[in-house]
Amino acid sequence: MATRRDRDVEKVTSRTQFVEKLRRLADALEQGQPFTIQVAHERFTVPADAELSVEHERGEDGEELELQLRWERQG
Prior knowledge:
Blueprint lengths: L14 H17 L3 E5 L2 E5 L4 E9 L2 E9 L5
Antiparallel strand pairs: 1-2, 3-4
């Protein structure tokens, strides 16, 4: 069985693609369904019961808003 390596990827995307992904995510969350997405050539599924959080950071150079989904890997 293949072992998944640690990964930390940030993918810059167009506004149109970002909005499309957010809409699909919101629809899946609203319906209590899992959400499948591909980021930097890897496809994965966020389970319907993922933990949701909103994070705001402020520093000397600017601000950042993160919408986070966290879950435990199965198997």
